[in-house]
Every structure is written in structure tokens, then in C-alpha cells.
């Protein structure tokens, strides 16, 4: 069984996954794709390659989902197959990079795959307004200083906002398992009290 | 594999990148990126290597493909700008 942690870029998913996995004694499970062979082609011609790119992301997520299904271990997962489809693929469609028929084809495949993948026992949704997410992404980059201009600090407000709208819509309609929504503006999970309160809530829901 | 060109812009900053594949990479860096940044009326440029993970982050951050012509125009504008403050 697994708990999923979902949320937009900069919401703090990875940090929470790590903390929860440590606290619960579960395994932290991160991104499914090591190499997507379409990524470079995608940058050369997004309309041409958006569909195979998304199919490749989806198939890796599916494989990861199947391994979760068959695993006896308890895991905390950073992002889900649902977000691949409902947020990122949908955003490409809405931005005009995925054709209608390709998107429908993708959704058909996704809906078939998702039936075969174990549902999370609980989903934790880290909800933040776009300004807070922007701030967090910028802080994160300041801390990283990998190079002078890290890509994430360039995320346009409108782009992040569009993803946020898709996230809110998705979570409103999400019925596959119980959802704990954490408002990251009001609740700082770095605060131990808030974190242990969340852990208590989790334990109540999964036990 | 050919060079390719992407950009990402917000209200304050415009970033253009030319990505040149490194033919025989000897570490995780597989592209050489030439970046042009326009920020608050000033120009900057620098070159740095990128990894596959960097490309994934760019995907998530909404970078999108542009034609070579657009990058070339921006590069020419930067060179012509008398106020340009170039970082090399």
C-alpha cells in the first residue's frame, strides 16, 4: 500500500515524502523516469513530440504503479500517475501542443491503465496559492545555487497559475481515496507540531 | 543531432537558450547551453552545461520551443544594444 503526496511545483512534496517516509518507516518513492528518449526531440518540435513524450512518461508511471501494486512494502510516493494525465498532459493540450485526437487517445489509454494500478490508501494534497508557490520556487533556487540561473526561477506566474487551476479542479473531483488537503500558506510543515498533527491524521485514516 | 532553441518568459525576465548537444559527453552533462537573459532592460549571456535532469526541470517549468530565427534576433539585439551589460 502507498500514500501519495501531490501538489504543484514548489509545494514541498519531495521534502514531505522524505519526512513522512522516515517518520512512518516506509519507503520513499520518487520520479519514475530516468530517461525519456523523446525529451530532446520535444524541445526541438513540441507539437510533433508532445504525444510520444507523454506516452513515455505515462508508461513509466504505469510500470511504477504496477510495482507498487505487487509490492508488499509500504511506500510514500512523490506525485502520481493521475497528475501526469490530469495536470501535465492536460496543460499541454490546453496550450495547443497536444492535438485533440492525440489527447483523447492518451486519455483512453490512461483510463485503461489506471484501472490496473493500485489506488493510494490516502492522498495528501499540498495546496498553495500561486504567489506562495512562486516564492517557494525562488527560495529553493536561491538555496540550490547550482548555477547562476536555475530553470525553475523562470517559471512564469501564468504558467504556474494554470497548473494550479488544473490541480484544484482535479482534486475537487478526486474520489479514489481519502484526501488530506494541507494549505501550505497556513500550515508550515517544517513546524514539528504541524507535521506531527498531520502524521496523527494519517494514522487515523490508514489504520 | 541539431542545436535547438527554447525560451521562457515572465513579467520581469526573458530567458532564451540555445542547446547544443555535446557529442561525446564524459560526464552527466550532455548539452551546452548558451543563455541570453533580458532583465529590467539589461542583457546578460553565459554558457553552461546542462544535464538530462535540467531538461526535465525545464519541461516542468514550461520552457517552450522557438525557432532559431527568434534566438538569432534576440542575440543580434543584445549585441546591438548600447546599454547592454554583457556577462561573459
Describe this structure in words.
The complex is a heterodimer of chains A (207) and B (88). Chain A is α/β, with parallel strands linked by helices and 207 residues long. Chain A is built from 8 helices and 5 strands, in the order E-H-E-H-H-E-H-H-E-H-H-E-H. Chain A has one domain (2-206): Rossmann fold (3-Layer(aba) Sandwich), CATH 3.40.50.300. Chain A has helices at residues 13-24, 39-44, 46-70, 81-94, 100-116, 130-144, 157-172, 192-206, and strands at residues 2-7, 27-29, 75-78, 122-127, 179-183. The longest helix of chain A has 25 residues, at 46-70. The termini of chain A are close together. Chain B is α+β, with helices and mostly antiparallel strands. Chain B is 26% helix and 44% strand. Chain B has helices at 52-61, 68-80; strands at 4-9, 13-21, 29-39, 42-51, 64-66. Chain B has a 5-stranded antiparallel β-sheet with strand order 4-3-2-1-5, sandwiched between helices. The longest helix of chain B has 13 residues, at 68-80. Chain A binds chain B through residues 9, 33, 35-36, 39-40, 42-46, 88, 97, 147-152, 154-159, and chain B through 1-2, 4, 6, 8-11, 13, 15, 19, 21, 35, 37, 46, 48, 52, 54-65.
Amino acid at each position: 500500500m502507498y500514500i501519495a503526496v501531490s501538489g504543484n511545483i514548489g509545494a514541498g512534496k519531495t521534502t514531505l515524502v522524505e519526512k513522512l517516509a522516515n517518520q512512518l518507516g516506509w519507503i520513499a518513492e520518487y520520479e519514475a523516469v530516468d530517461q525519456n528518449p523523446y525529451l530532446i526531440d520535444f524541445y526541438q518540435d513540441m507539437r510533433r513530440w508532445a504525444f510520444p513524450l507523454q506516452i513515455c512518461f505515462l508508461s513509466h508511471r504505469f510500470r511504477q504503479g504496477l510495482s507498487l501494486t505487487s509490492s508488499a512494502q509500504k511506500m510514500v510516493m512523490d506525485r502520481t500517475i493521475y497528475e501526469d494525465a490530469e495536470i501535465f498532459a492536460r496543460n499541454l493540450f490546453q496550450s495547443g501542443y497536444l492535438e485533440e485526437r492525440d489527447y483523447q487517445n492518451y486519455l483512453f489509454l490512461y483510463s485503461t491503465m489506471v484501472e490496473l494500478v493500485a489506488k493510494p490508501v490516502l492522498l495528501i494534497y499540498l495546496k498553495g496559492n500561486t504567489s506562495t508557490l512562486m516564492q517557494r520556487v525562488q527560495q529553493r533556487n536561491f538555496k540550490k545555487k547550482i548555477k547562476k540561473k536555475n530553470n525553475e526561477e523562470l517559471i512564469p506566474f501564468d504558467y504556474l497559475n494554470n497548473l494550479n487551476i488544473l490541480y484544484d479542479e482535479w482534486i475537487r473531483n478526486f474520489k479514489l481515496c481519502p484526501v488530506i488537503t494541507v494549505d501550505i500558506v497556513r500550515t508550515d510543515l517544517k513546524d514539528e507540531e504541524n507535521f506531527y498533527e498531520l502524521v496523527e491524521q494519517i494514522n487515523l485514516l490508514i489504520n | 543531432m541539431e542545436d535547438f532553441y527554447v525560451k521562457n518568459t515572465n513579467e520581469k525576465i526573458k530567458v532564451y537558450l540555445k542547446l547544443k548537444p555535446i557529442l561525446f559527453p564524459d560526464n552527466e552533462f550532455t548539452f551546452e547551453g548558451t543563455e541570453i537573459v533580458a532583465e529590467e532592460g539589461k542583457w546578460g549571456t553565459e554558457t553552461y552545461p546542462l544535464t538530462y535532469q535540467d531538461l526535465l526541470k525545464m519541461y516542468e517549468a514550461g520552457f517552450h520551443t522557438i525557432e532559431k530565427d527568434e534566438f538569432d534576433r534576440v542575440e543580434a539585439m543584445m549585441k546591438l544594444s548600447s546599454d547592454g551589460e554583457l556577462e561573459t
